Amino acid sequence: MPDTVDIDGLVAYLVSSLVDHPEDVRIEKRQSDRGVVYEVSTNPEDVGKVIGRQGRVIKAMRTLVRAAASLTGSDATVEVLD
């Protein structure tokens, strides 16, 4: 089992790949009582692309991030800010 997993890089890659304005992507990492929360903000035109229809894209992203974090025994999630 790997000791380190680049979850920061994974979140940045996933979000930047989805949007039309990757230069406007901002990701803040904060610690909560349940684990790490990645707060993502994008250009207002790109918010829908990150969320997806009926939230499918953000749900899939959260699943990937949670799985990657579980490799190190921690928990992580992604939140999209307006």
What is the compact description of this entry?
This protein has helices at residues 7-18, 47-51, 56-70, and strands at 26-32, 35-41, 76-80.
Which strand order spans the largest sheet, edge to edge or round the barrel?
Answer: 1-2-3
DSSP helix fraction: 25-40%
Number of helices: 3
Largest sheet: 3 strands, mixed
Counting helices, strands and paired strands, the structural category is alpha+beta
Task: Indicate the topology.
Layout: H1 7-18, E1 26-32, E2 35-41, H2 47-51, H3 56-70, E3 76-80
Parallel strand pairs: 2-3
Antiparallel strand pairs: 1-2
Helix pairs in contact: 1-3
Describe the structure.
The chain is of the alpha+beta class and 82 residues long. Helices cover 39% and strands 23% of the residues. A hairpin with a 2-residue loop joins strand 1 and strand 2. It is built from 3 helices and 3 strands. The mean pLDDT is 94. Helix 1 runs antiparallel to helix 3. Strands 1-2-3 form a 3-stranded mixed beta sheet.
Keywords:
23% strand; 82 residues; 3 helices
